[in-house]
Amino acid sequence: MNHLIKFCFLVLITFFCFGDAFSYTTKPFEAKDQNANHSVSLYNNAEITNVGDSYYTFEEFLAKENSLKFEAIEGTSTNLGFTKSKYWLRFTIKNISELPLLYYLETGRPVTDIVDLYMLAEGEPVKKMKNGDIIPFSEKSFAHRKVIFPLNLEPNKTYKLYINYISDGEVINLPLELHTPTSMVLSTYQNQLFNGVFYGIILLASAIYLLFYFGIGNNSFLLYSVYVLSVGLLHLSLDGYFLQYIDPESGWLNKNAILITAIFSALAFGRYAQIYTNMKKVEQSIEQWTEYYVGCFSGPLTLSCFLSGWKGILLSHGKPA
């Protein structure tokens, strides 16, 4: 009798400890109210798989879905790091109310090259929504600098959603924030306030140093003004404003904006430090190393200017050109 009790006890422990390893499935998110003033993170309801360099159409992915290893999302804004791997994420949303609901899903980063969402519901055709940094702004599923998808949920329906992330080496983040219409507006206003202050300070600092240059004639002020301005342009690219306002067709300039502005800022800062510290009089060897540093950054900048479309060669909607 004692042996039987011990055996049953071990079976129960095994079930509770390891049961999830064999039957892990995420719970569907139950949507019932679109009037909240705050967003909800779906990381507890989602799981993701890394397919490496393999490119799958949605139909091919569905055929292989059961053979792929999915993992839970670690946190509210999981960072996948600098990667060229392709990722597929899946989760389920169920509208348990008697009314149609509208939500906005925020995911990825504005500079993620391709973020495509596929939405499935019983009795309905597959709905595909496009987003990402290498498509024209007018083709984005929602006219916003961020990666946002509008989700229209019919009453008492369950939806399976799949998201495909493709990057050329940039960082991929997974915020997975589900916004109500109200929280979407509030979040946009808040971002506009903070970004307005940040870019205003950048523009003011650049203008002040430019005035110093015209008033005093010292080249270090001009170089520092260029450095500050290029840092501002770099953040415009990272925040998605470059695609939205400067190059909405996502042409060569937008595809290379991060590289060009980053190199310009490094070159300007290097020259500024060189002139400001008067290295020629201090130490000749340091001056030579500075020239080498500037030359190392000038090469990639020149290549990026002549090899237009380098990003498009690497990526053509996820496939090699």
TrEMBL record:
Source organism superkingdom: Bacteria
One Pfam family here: 7TMR-DISM_7TM
Domain annotation 7TM-DISM receptor extracellular: ranges: 56-179, 192-298
Signal sequence bounds: 1-23
Keyword Protein biosynthesis among record annotations: no
Keyword Transcription in record: no
Record field: transmembrane: 193-214, 221-244, 256-273
InterPro entries in UniProt: 7TMR_DISM_rcpt_extracell_dom1, 7TMR_DISM_rcpt_extracell_dom2
Keywords noted in UniProt: Membrane, Signal, Transmembrane, Transmembrane helix
The protein's name: Periplasmic/7TM domain sensor diguanylate cyclase
Species, as recorded: Cyclobacterium qasimii M12-11B
Source species taxonomy: Bacteria, Pseudomonadati, Bacteroidota, Cytophagia, Cytophagales
